[in-house]
Structures are given as structure tokens and as C-alpha cells.
Amino acid sequence: MEISVPDASLKLVQACGRLLRTEEDRGTITLLDRRLVTQRYGKAILNALPPFRREIS
């Protein structure tokens, strides 16, 4: 947990950064892994993201 969660968070943030380079850029990031909302480490991973608008369903 101490290594894998921060590593996963970093890779996700980097991937989002590749999608959105400037403030005018637009894109959709879709995460299909339900563990992000059902497991305790999911909140830490989602909070590592920039303040994007989120839709969790």
C-alpha cells in the first residue's frame, strides 16, 4: 500500500497531464475500475488528481 498507491496516483496524474496541456484544452478521463469508489485507497488516488469536475455513478 505504501508504495503501490502513490505510484498509481503519480501515473494517473501524469496521464491526465498528457491529455490536458493548457487551460483551454478539454478532454474526458474515464476510470472504469470500481475499486476507486469501493476501496479505502481509491479516495487517496482520486484526491491526487487536479480539481476536475467529477461524476461518480
Task: Walk me through what this model shows.
With 57 residues, the protein is an all-alpha fold. It has one domain. It is 49% helix and 0% strand. The protein has three helices and no strands. Helix 1 runs parallel beside helix 3. The chain is globular.
What is the tally of helical segments? 3
Number of domains: 1
Q: What distance separates the N and C termini?
A: 25 Å
Strand tally is 0
Order of helices and strands: HHH
Shape: globular
Strand content: under 5%
Backbone CA Rg: 12 Å
Largest sheet: number of strands, sense, barrel closure? none
- Low-pLDDT runs of 5+ residues are none
Helical content class: 40-55%
The secondary structure category is: mainly alpha
Q: For the residues shown, what is the average pLDDT?
A: 86
Which labels suit this protein?
57 residues, mainly alpha, 0% strand
SSE topology:
Blueprint: H1 4-19, H2 35-38, H3 40-47
Helix pairs in contact: 1-3
Produce a short descriptive summary.
The chain is mostly helical and 57 residues long. It is 49% helix and 0% strand.
